[in-house]
């Protein structure tokens, strides 16, 4: 496990367990993968592995679909959220660098 990877991010859960946790069928989960909504890792033998964050995301996707939201709209929303998260992270890094620079000069 990477040093900054939490147990929530570690992809160790099989699709069967994900089905049990979410109530979704394997076919539905694969469909969400085809639609580029979820990105499981693959073992050397091709077995899909999911994280707890993936499980939460699948439940969120299923809830949105029940509300009638199309998968293309869900994907756009996820992309927008990811860009926002990346922008926020960049801003925090820059603020940290600025603070470190000025603290060092004091």
Automatic annotation (TrEMBL):
It comes from the Bacteria. The keyword Repressor applies. InterPro entries: DNA-bd_dom_put_sf (IPR009061), MerR-type_HTH_dom (IPR000551), MerR_fam (IPR047057). The keyword Flavoprotein does not apply. Pfam families: MerR_1. One of its GO terms (molecular function) is DNA binding. Keywords: DNA-binding, Repressor, Transcription, Transcription regulation. Residues 12-80 form the HTH merR-type domain. This is MerR family transcriptional regulator.
């Amino acid at each position: 496990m990477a040093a900054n990877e939490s147990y929530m991010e570690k992809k160790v859960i099989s699709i069967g367990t994900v089905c049990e946790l979410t109530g979704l069928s394997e076919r539905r989960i694969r469909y969400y993968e085809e639609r580029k909504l979820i990105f499981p890792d693959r073992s050397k033998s091709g077995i899909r592995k999911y994280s707890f964050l993936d499980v939460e995301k699948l439940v969120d996707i299923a809830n949105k679909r029940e509300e009638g939201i199309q998968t293309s709209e869900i994907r756009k929303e996820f992309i927008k959220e990811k860009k926002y998260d990346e922008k926020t992270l960049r801003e925090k890094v820059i603020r940290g660098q600025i603070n470190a620079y000025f603290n060092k000069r004091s």
